[in-house]
Amino acid sequence: MTTVTIRHAERRDIAHIAEWNAAMAWETEQKRLDIHLLTRGVTAVFDESRRGFYLIAEHDGQPAGCLLVTYEWSDWRNGDFWWIQSVYVAPEARRSGVFRALHTAVAQRAANAGAVGLRLYVETENKRAQDTYHKLGMDQCHYLMYEQMI
């Protein structure tokens, strides 16, 4: 039987998180990210806690995945939504409960912190991830996402 444990990421995890983010960008969007810029971006989360935090999943004692939580204030609900971002599970650990454990840990932490909900975005073609999120109790909302790069 395998064991998945979740812990808050530490600075020693920065290189691993950056590598996983680069792998995720390639797998999901065929985007090659600048590893130096990405490493600085990951480090910035550790430098300012207002930006969020990372969780690390360990599968049988080995790092197996991560995610980033960021915050969005909702004046309508007078509370924060916690956004799940930068999700990655190492290929050898997929389908073994790693993301389920990460999701459960985020949901528990969010509830304890008084957050009003969890949100995430997913590529429109990534049906497997969408099915996973649905099975964990997340529903597709009616919003579309737009962006403008500056």
How does this structure look, described?
This is GNAT family N-acetyltransferase. Residues 4-150 form the N-acetyltransferase domain. GO terms for molecular function: acyltransferase activity, transferring groups other than amino-acyl groups. The termini are far apart. The chain has helices at residues 14-29, 35-47, 98-113, 127-135, and strands at 4-8, 53-59, 62-74, 79-89, 117-120. The protein has a single domain (4-135), classed as Gcn5-related N-acetyltransferase (GNAT) (Aminopeptidase). The chain is built from four helices and five strands; from the N terminus they run βααβββαβα. 23% of the residues are buried. The radius of gyration is 15 Å and the shape is globular. The longest helix is centred in the N-terminal third of the chain and has 16 residues, at 14-29.
Low-confidence stretches: none
Portion in beta strands: 25-35%
What percent of the residues sit in helical stretches (DSSP H or I)? 25-40%
Would you state the CATH class? Alpha Beta
Quote the distance from N terminus to C terminus: 48 Å
What structural category characterises the helix and strand content?
alpha+beta
What is the name of the CATH topology? Answer: Aminopeptidase
Secondary-structure element pattern, one letter each: EHHEEEHEH
Considering the protein shown, what is the CATH homologous superfamily? Answer: Gcn5-related N-acetyltransferase (GNAT)
How many strands?
A: 5
- Anisotropy-based shape: globular
Widest β-sheet, arrangement of strands: 1-2-3-4-5
Quaternary structure = single chain
Query: Whole-number average pLDDT?
Result: 93
